[in-house]
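User: quick one
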Amino acid sequence: MSESVESLTGAKLPSISEIKVERPFEYQTEKYKREGNLGEDLGATAIDLFLLKRAIFGKSPAAPQSLKTIGGLPKTAALEMPQGLIEARFAKFSQMVRESKASHYGTDIRIHGSRAVGDAKATSDIDVAIRVSPEKFNQIIKQVFKDVKPGSRSAAEKTMLHAIETGKIHRRQLGLRTLGKDIQKEFGFPDVDISVIRKGGAFDQGPWIPLK
Amino acid sequence: MSEIDFGGAIYTDADAEIEKLTFALSQLFNSLPDKWSNVETSVGEFSVLKNDEFDEQMRKDNEDGFLYYRYLIEVEPNKELGEENAVAFVSKLLEYLWSQGYPATAACGYEDALPNKGKLIPENHNWGEYYIWK
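Assistant: Done. Structure below.
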């Protein structure tokens, strides 16, 4: 099968096992040692920077306030701001989402997952949920899967049935991939998970931080 | 909503770090990924994402297991170039993944036009150990 791939490209392609890339943490560590500033463009949080500095220098700089705060919180409590964003940046984030196609699906838009709880790493994604009623959810299913042939047993049909079963519609199916990329570029999060979530479904679980 | 949508997804259980996988796929189109595993080419774009529903056991199910593979590749073929381009674009990605021995399944509106109808689990595939880069 590799021959057909090579014939498509006209060049010998490397096996994935032959490829060497810099691991993000090594890259960040070297960048910090070299330039003394790290993380803002990669979405690193104050906690990440604190832990990284400690790893590099072998001593403890002053712990950021957010770390002290999180240490005293139960796991189920949401932060006031998503981890990795200050208030002004969260306002900008909220504005970007609300002015996008995401708001066509619903206005109850919230952050959840590790960045709402406060246990995110620099490599953690940010999870955005557009919470809708079961009736609205069904409407959106019909809209975004309108080309799926019922009973075809295609992979596309299986993704639709999976979305119905779990109560979650992924950003790609919603046409929100571009918004995800724009948020990555603006805020540096490694990944942006934007979903429509059915109220009362398996993914309808906080803690939540509502958008501004 | 009435515009033609050639977008879709490829689910793959690649036994490789996301950076390596994205780089290898970008080379198919003489391109390079950005630092968030997005790749732009003249014939389309794709993004490699970790599947947040990855499940070590459920991925082995022959029918629906692809929903639980390790990676999800969002594909957006260039709309201007039509369905033929979309089929070629997704086929190229699939064939490379299969050539590396990775299970891969495409979910899109033109699955029947893809090689092997867009789905292949290599024969005697070894699902292996749980990867260290979980």
